[in-house]
């Protein structure tokens, strides 16, 4: 017998269930079909269905993990579960897929528009975006923005220093984001006037963490923690923000310990 509690035997993805069955059989029962069947009698018959689903639908990602199980490359179930994470990560679909394609097109457009000044360093641009928030809060002067850009460029240097053209683009990038952080608009005025002050408070928390046009993972747990409201209020508040046009939701959240999918919102103003 074993104390191992399967994570995926009763989940929708039967290909994962098959892989987990095989991993537990090899790692916990020395490959014994009889012993694992005795340990999990409820699933002994179902696993034949899982096996058929696997051979009918498995992709190279699944086959790669299956080979590692068969070749006994995993030393523990933790290693096996860690290898599953890329498969479990939700694939962009619907609005999220459109959003990804849009961002890819924007990057290519920027590459053409900026020419020699184009910065192909996502780590630097991410750090610059975060720094812009602090600069906006501090009402930073121009010299501070330039100093910050210079420091960030050094910290994320991948061995090739930025050219003068790239440094100019980086400074402009930070300036623009600082201005966006400081901008007010008519939708915000409507939020201020809304009788439910939880709505404006939630909007303020999102605005502090996300610039116009950017997306943010905002699951119920984060909304409750930052919005200081009850769990039952979150859906109504977020629906109102969407109705007013403050945010849109490219991806709905999905509850579950192994779903790994949080609601994602885009700040529109």
Structural summary, described in words:
The chain is mostly helical and 269 residues long. The protein has three domains: 75 residues, no CATH class; 77 residues, no CATH class; 82 residues, Winged helix-like DNA-binding domain superfamily/Winged helix DNA-binding domain (Arc Repressor Mutant, subunit A), CATH 1.10.10.10. It contains 13 helices and three strands. It has a three-stranded antiparallel beta sheet. Helix 7 packs across helix 9, helix 8 crosses helix 9 and helix 11 packs across helix 13. The longest helix has 21 residues. The mean pLDDT is 86.
- Taken from the alpha-carbon principal axes, the silhouette is globular
Instruction: Give the overall average pLDDT.
Output: 86
* DSSP E strands, number: 3
CATH architecture of the largest domain: Orthogonal Bundle
Using only CA atoms, what is the Rg? 25 Å
Number of domains: 3
Physical arrangement of strands within the biggest beta sheet? 1-3-2
Q: How far apart, in Å, are the first and last alpha carbons? A: 58 Å
> What is the name of the CATH class of the largest domain?
Mainly Alpha
Strand content: under 5%
CATH superfamily of the largest domain: Winged helix-like DNA-binding domain superfamily/Winged helix DNA-binding domain
CATH fold title of the largest domain: Arc Repressor Mutant, subunit A
- Unreliable spans: none
Helix and strand arrangement:
Layout: H1 14-28, H2 33-39, H3 46-57, H4 60-70, H5 77-88, H6 94-114, H7 122-137, H8 142-155, H9 164-182, H10 186-193, H11 197-209, E1 215-217, H12 220-227, H13 231-244, E2 247-251, E3 264-267
Antiparallel strand pairs: 1-3, 2-3
